[in-house]
């Protein structure tokens, strides 16, 4: 039997979970797009990177890099608790590629943080996981949060463990797992 040792509710937990959103690698050489990617790829809140993201989106970019820059700016906006801006960026990326796994996962996590119903949020995360995202551990972590919020502790535990297996030593998964105990 898997038991949580601490009840987790409220938006502060969701914001912390959402801060684990994932960046998407830029292929081209646009320096503003690379700055946007690096800011999204760090674990820090980087409002200073938003102008570079906007400049990149106003420049000539490949379709992939434009889509990736929308995702990366969405991650930055989410970390700054700009849920509507983040959703707009993830939707812009999905308009270019409706099956883009990282955009799907990030949109699902952002919806959770914004208080959306768990079902639609989880469906997006699962669709993203099925599509082969660049950082699947983030998707498993997001799905674990959804399971935990829905009171499905065993499923949450297993998804946190999967995130930990995919990225050993990753602090968010380690911290989440520390709240659970497994009883035989």
List the helices and strands and how they pair.
Blueprint: E1 2-4, H1 11-18, H2 31-41, H3 50-57, H4 63-79, H5 83-96, H6 101-113, H7 118-130, H8 136-149, H9 153-166, H10 171-177, E2 180-182
Helix pairs in contact: 1-6, 2-3, 2-4, 3-4, 4-5, 4-6, 5-6, 6-7, 6-8, 7-8, 8-9, 9-10
What is the subunit organization of this protein?
A: single chain
H/E topology pattern: EHHHHHHHHHHE
Q: How far is the N terminus from the C terminus?
A: 6 Å
Summed up, the helix count is: 10
Overall CATH class of the largest domain:
Mainly Alpha
Beta fraction of the residues?
under 5%
Q: Give me the CATH fold name of the largest domain.
A: Serine Threonine Protein Phosphatase 5, Tetratricopeptide repeat
What global shape is seen?
Answer: elongated
Query: In which range does the helix fraction lie?
Result: 55-70%
CATH architecture of the largest domain: Alpha Horseshoe
- Estimate the mean pLDDT confidence: 86
Question: Which structural class do you get from the secondary structure elements?
Answer: mainly alpha
What integer value in Å does the Rg equal? 16 Å
Low-pLDDT stretches are: 1-19
Major beta sheet summary: 2 strands, antiparallel
Number of strands: 2
């Amino acid at each position: 039997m898997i038991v949580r040792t601490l009840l987790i509710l409220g938006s502060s937990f969701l914001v912390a979970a959402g801060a684990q959103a994932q960046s998407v690698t830029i292929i081209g050489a646009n320096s503003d797009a690379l700055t946007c990617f690096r800011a999204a790829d760090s674990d820090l809140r980087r409002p200073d990177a938003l102008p570079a993201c906007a400049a990149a989106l106003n420049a000539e970019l490949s379709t992939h890099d434009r889509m990736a820059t929308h995702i990366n700016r969405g991650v930055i906006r989410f970390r700054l608790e700009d849920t509507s801006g983040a959703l707009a960026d993830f939707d812009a990326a999905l308009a270019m590629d409706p099956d883009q796994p990282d955009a799907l996962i990030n949109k699902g996590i952002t919806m959770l943080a914004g208080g959306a119903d768990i079902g639609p949020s989880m469906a997006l995360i699962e669709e993203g996981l099925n599509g082969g995202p660049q950082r699947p551990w983030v998707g498993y972590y997001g799905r674990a949060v959804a399971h935990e919020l829905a009171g499905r502790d065993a499923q949450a535990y297993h998804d946190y463990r999967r995130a930990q297996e995919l990225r050993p030593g990753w602090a968010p998964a380690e911290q989440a797992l520390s709240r659970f105990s497994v009883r035989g």
